[in-house]
Amino acid sequence: MKFGILLTSVYDRATPAARQRDEHAELVRTADQAGFSLMVAGQHFLGAELRYFQPVPWLTYMSQHAPSMDVATGIVLLSMVNPVDMAEQMSTLDVLTDGRVRFGVGLGYSPHEFDAFGVRKGERVARFEESLALIRRLWSGEKVTSEGRFVSVHEAQPAVQPVQVGGPPVWIGGQAAGAVKRAATRGDAWYSPPFPTHAQLYEMSRLFTETREAAGVAPAAEFPVRRELLIADSREDAMEAALVRYRARYETYRKWGLKGQNTPVEKSGEELREDIEQRFILGSPEECAAGLHKLGDEIGMTHFVYKPHWPGLPHAEAMRQLDRFGSEVVPLLRS
């Protein structure tokens, strides 16, 4: 099992950008020392609540602080961005990191982002699939002619090519059945988001495997999974910490328009606690290690992508959680 650190945003524009840069750099250096082998950065546009730096330059900068770590976009909003631009950006990143890139992609969900890019409702899947196919062809090194519905190229042969032959592995994110099937047939891995319950994660993992088998595609070599994880001296202490994080996190996602299949809804009291139990790994270091081991053993998780930063909580708390994960949870899993 490998470990990835998620460089997510917890600050809005009122916080100095340099502070976020320096705190992410500290996370990366500490994670590298703790045995993490991957850093992950996602993408959003025009965010007022949280500041997202664009992932390719961000990962390029952060990789200088941990030159041996792999890097992954988690995720690029491929239904919105230009595929020619993204093909060459990812090729550049692959060169700069000596071929240590994963290309994580997804559809997106925020109406204001789709509006800003002129993506009409009903187009996003078609745009995604056309863009991914074109990117793969541009990474092939061959001349490409493609008359697409959204983007066309003629006798294109980019000089900017990735180190990895054929391009970086493609991790496709999403939490609906359609997204999982798309990952099975068009991607190299399904990148599981943290929103589904543990039971839903198992169901979608089976769907991914069965769809891949039915399509005659070889088993995936990687299975990256995001689960929220809280370490404390007791399970009750971890639950109380999770309650604070849960409310702050999903309030932001609701503002951005996240909804649909396998997405948590508004709950309170015991219902909220039960919801957290179904989605979080939490408790003592031993309990957290057991939960992660179970995911590796039962569904074949190869990469656990960990997010210590949470909106509304100080960076020092993220560092405390990361330190405990590296010093108390990782040794239990290694043994």
TrEMBL record:
Keywords: Monooxygenase, Oxidoreductase
Lineage top rank: taxon: Bacteria
Keyword Transport carried by entry: no
Molecular function terms, GO-annotated: monooxygenase activity; oxidoreductase activity, acting on paired donors, with incorporation or reduction of molecular oxygen
Organism: Streptomyces rapamycinicus (strain ATCC 29253 / DSM 41530 / NRRL 5491 / AYB-994) (Streptomyces hygroscopicus (strain ATCC 29253))
Luciferase-like domain ranges (all copies): 1-301
Pfam family of the protein (one): Bac_luciferase
Oxidoreductase among keywords: yes
Gene Ontology cellular component terms for the protein in this record: cytosol
Name of the featured protein: Luciferase-like domain-containing protein
